[in-house]
Amino acid sequence: MNERILLIGSGGREHALAKALVVSPSCAKLWVAPGNPGIAREAELVSLNIGNADDVLRFCQNNDVSLVVIGPEQPLAEGLADEIRAGGFDVFGPSKAAAQVESSKGFSKDAMQRFGVPTAPYRRFTSTQRDEALMYAKQHDLPVVVKYDGLAAGKGVVVATTREEAVAAVTDMYEGVFGDDGVVIEGFLVGQEASVFAITDGTHYVTLAPAQDHKRVGDGDTGKNTGGMGAYAPAPLVTPSVLDAVRALVIEPMLRGLREEGTPFVGCLYCGIMVDDQGRPSVVEFNARFGDPETQAVLAVLEADVAALFASAARGSLNESTISNVALGYACNVVLASQGYPDAYEKGAVITGIDDAEADPYVTVFFAGTGQRGNDLITTGGRVLGVTARGTTLEEAVRRSYAACEKISYSTKMYRTDIAARAHS
Fold it and tell me: What span, in angstroms and rounded, lies between the C-alpha atoms of 55 and 269?
């Protein structure tokens, strides 16, 4: 089928999705709303208010759109997929109810408990239970993990190693740093983290190449949590036996439980897992969409008709034959950020050197926090670019990615120098 696709989003993840969709044999036309300057090189950008379902539906009706792919978490949490489906269009992305696996940490933890999915012990506290949360944090064994219950752009998690840090984290979250959704306080899981994406129609699913993200802003996993400073795939940590355990213990009971409760999950279920030294997985978090920056690496090694894969999931009949190879070689993605991120940072620095970086045919630069000022490409966000390289070995992919990073310049450029180092530790 010749799919006419509308992709919602504007970040590095959406740039990677756009690049994968537009080269799919099944893709006849791709529009992206609102997109970014890099995505404009792949597809036609359209100016839509993606927070207004009527605007999106009107565009779909006027342009014979056959599939809508929703990239970011916010429109999913607000129910955009439900409204587009109600308008008669196929959507790759979960309903508002199913997206609660990400939009509410408390919902997610409660669901895991009901469905028997391994995760850390926890307690959830509502927006009016600040005193109880503070008391619980003070008494909890250390380290203790404090999570904002709602969406926080990947930054609403604090791993506290002292009582003072735990109290400060709870206090900050109740003082409206992110909103007023309460907190979840949970035990600290020991092991290494990995990300597994399951593409699903609600019943059947297929997993893509496992990845490892680097959440902390500094080398050696130091500093504050961010939305992600780089990723690589496939991650050697997730051996075939570990992946089998993730499927049996995490993905299958979660999909089955959501389906049986009347909220089937359709789209990309992101499983953030901790793998202990025995190879046993526990869930750190679920997301209701592709991860960023893992997507840039995962899709770089995927050989598939991505448009047909997403369309089959959206229509309730997942077609695994659309995939030729989930991991052809290796890929490394290094995020170039703005100095000061994830706190305050300057905007408007002029970016140069992207063409030089992409002179290597194995390198792709994905645009994230970027904009145009006249003829200049400028920084507009904390995470600016994702420099992704492929290789027949992980070492080759890492080397190419960092060589490309050196060719890109802007006055506030910062990045981690140790992406994928843990694969060799």
Answer: 27
Q: What is the pLDDT of residues 172-201, one digit of tens each?
A: 999 877 767 899 999 999 999 999 999 999
The architecture (CATH level 2) of 3-92 comes to 3-Layer(aba) Sandwich (3.40)
Q: Which residue has the tokens 């989003």?
A: 9
pLDDT digit string (tens) for 241-298?
999 999 999 999 999 999 999 999 999 999 999 999 999 999 999 999 999 999 999 9
- What amino acid is encoded at 231 in this protein? A
By the 8 A CB rule, do 323 and 304 touch? Answer: yes
CA distance 386 to 395: 18
Integer angstrom CA distances of residue 135 from 104, 106, 188, 237:
22, 18, 18, 37
> Are 299 and 187 a contacting pair, CB within 8 Å?
no
Contact, 84 vs 57, CB < 8 A?
yes
Class of domain 121-186: alpha beta
